[in-house]
Amino acid sequence: MLIINPKYITDHAGNKISVVISLKEFEAMVEKIEELEDIKLYDQVKNSDESSLPIDEAFEMIETLRKEK
What we know:
It comes from Algoriphagus aquaeductus. This is Antitoxin Phd_YefM of type II toxin-antitoxin system. Pfam families: RelB-like. The chain is an alpha+beta fold. It has a domain at 23-68. Helices cover 57% and strands 13% of the residues. It is built from two helices and two strands; from the N terminus they run ββαα. It has helices spanning 23-47, 55-68; strands at residues 7-10, 16-20. The protein has a two-stranded antiparallel ribbon with strand order 1-2. A hairpin with a 5-residue loop joins strand 1 (7-10) and strand 2 (16-20). The longest helix is centred in the middle third of the chain and has 25 residues, at 23-47. It is elongated, with a radius of gyration of 22 Å. The protein starts with 6 loop residues before the first strand and ends with a helix. The mean pLDDT is 92.
């Protein structure tokens, strides 16, 4: 579980206007967000009707196209 200990910056009226977190917490948040984006993309692909091919075939096609250039 991700634990974040934010510190708040307030304006003259005491309203929270900014948040300060440690670099370690920030990097952990970015990592979690990227992981969630990957999961979302995976789910979209799995639910699509588009055809797919094995990864080895995809790499072969990419390599062939690269060599043709």
